[in-house]
Amino acid sequence: MELNGKQVLVLIDLYQERRLLWDSSDSQHKLKNQRHDSLTEIAVSFEVDKNEIERKWKNFTSHFWREKKKEAETKRTWSGADEPYVSKWFAYQPINFLGDKNKPSKTQDSTKRK
C-alpha cells in the first residue's frame, strides 16, 4: 500500500481522532475490541486490511521518533548550536501530538505525612 502525502495526513488525522489507539492513559486503550474496531474503521476508509494500517502507522511513528531524537540530541549536546536540527519531514508537525504521550505523569510522594 502506497500513500501519497495527502493520504498520509488523512491517516494521521484519523489516528489523532481515535485517542484510544495511541494514548495509554485513555480509559478505552486497554479494551482490545475497541482498538480493533477503531483500526478497522480506518482500514475500511482506505480500503485495505487492518494489518496494513498497523504496519504503516508503525513506520510513521518510528520515523517521527527518529526525527524527535535528532532534535533532542542537537539541543542536548550543542553539536548544532548555531543551527539546531529541525525536521523537514512533511508529516512531522501533524504527527507531533505523539510527542507528549510518553511524558511521565506527576506522582504523589507517599512518604509524606498529612
TrEMBL record:
Residues 10-103 form the MADF domain. It comes from the Eukaryota. InterPro entries: MADF-dom. This is MADF domain-containing protein. It comes from Henosepilachna vigintioctopunctata.
